[in-house]
Amino acid sequence: MMGIGGGGWMTGYYFALPWPAAKGYVAVMTDGGHVLSESNSWGLKSPGNVDWVLLNDFASIAVDDAATLAKAATKTFYGESSKFAYFNGCSTGGRQGYMLAQRYPQQYDGILATAPGINWDRMILGLLHPQVVMNEKSEIIRSV
After folding, report:
1. Residue 111: phi, psi to the nearest 5?
2. Where does 2-136 show beta strands of DSSP type E?
3. Which pLDDT value is given to residue 91?
4. 3 pairs with which residues across the strands?
5. How far is CA 39 from CA 7, 8, 48, in A?
6. Mind listing the pLDDT tens digit of every residue in the chain (144 residues)?
7. Angle at alpha carbon of residue 36, lines to 30 and 40, rounded to 5°
8. 70 neighbors 104 (Cβ within 8 angstroms)
9. How far apart, in whole angstroms, are the C-alpha atoms of residue 137 and residue 115?
């Protein structure tokens, strides 16, 4: 079985499922309880009002639930449990991999967690910094 992580504000990428399935894995991902979107508006009940249930699903619960359900579906469909379970994720998927290793280590035999989107307090500011500098200097670099 192979769990697939997400990126940005998405908990999973449905378009990443065909590769592990073609390699013989039972592939699983989750939408985290919200519409898959690069926007973070799903995390708000209203402007400035965080939906803590969906945020917790995004942060960790949904990837644990996805693994549990995938294992049950595998056993039901094939009549036996999967031999191994792996998780593969980058960015948000990397953060999910770290979370799985810390909170739910029993779910996967191996976790590939690359470029984890962690330390968001620094990461988001780092993403915005170039625009702030260009704005302050009134020198906008345009792509060609």
Report:
1. -130, 125
2. 2-4, 27-28, 44-46, 49-50, 86-91, 110-116
3. 92
4. 28, 87
5. 11, 8, 15
6. 999 999 888 888 889 999 999 999 999 999 887 776 667 788 888 988 999 998 898 889 999 999 999 999 999 999 999 999 999 999 999 999 999 999 999 999 999 999 998 888 888 888 888 889 999 998 887 776
7. 115
8. no
9. 31
Residue 122's pLDDT is: 87
Query: Do residues 57 and 21 lie in contact, with contact meaning Cβ atoms separated by under 8 Å?
Result: no
Query: CA 33, CA 65: separation in Å to the nearest integer?
Result: 11
Q: Are 45 and 24 in contact (CB under 8 A)?
A: no
Half-sphere exposure of 127 toward its Cβ, with a 13 Å CA cutoff?
Answer: 7
Nearest-angstrom CA–CA distance, 41 and 109: 34
What tokens appear for 103 in the block?
Answer: 């909170």
Please, which contacts does 51-60 make with residues 24 or more away whose CB atoms are closer than 8 Å? Answer: 57/11, 57/32, 57/33, 58/9, 58/11, 58/32, 58/33, 58/34, 59/99, 60/96, 60/99, 60/100, 60/103, 60/104
**Hey, what are 39's tokens?**
């926007």
